[in-house]
Amino acid sequence: MENALIHIISKANYPCSEHKTAQWISDISSVTGLLGRQQDSINRFDLYCASKMLFGAKTDIEKHLSTKTNQLFDLEDKIILYDLTNTYFEGRKAGSKLAKFGRGKEKRSDAIIIVLALVVNIEGFVKYSRI
What we know:
- By secondary structure, the chain is α+β, with helices and mostly antiparallel strands.
- About 40% of the residues lie in helices and about 20% in strands.
- The chain has two domains: about 1-55, no CATH class; about 75-130, no CATH class.
- It has helices spanning about 1-15, 20-25, 45-55, 60-70, and strands spanning about 80-90, 100, 110-120, 125-130.
- A hairpin with a 4-residue loop joins strand 3 and strand 4.
- Helix 2 packs across helix 3 (about 45-55).
- The two termini are about 25 Å apart.
């Protein structure tokens, strides 16, 4: 759980890959010190595991945050906005279950894409997301 907290705080401050984030933590961040750990006590593999654990709890986390923001800011979800976008991969991603060839916004037929969906309320708070 500590690694997940370190990962979340780090991503909020340095939104990069797990590999680059681990370097950032080791080289210049003191995020591990917040939890009483040594600066070099976390590596990219720890962050990969934390990402996997957080993604497994994604639905529960989104539900909790949605409820909490409504309570904190006295909001009702009267209007919900839905947005779709996509992104493509430079590599082959041959083993991917999600990435497929399709019509992307970049109009590239040579790259596989994934579609990202985001539901937000009128105030801009994220309610749900899906890849």
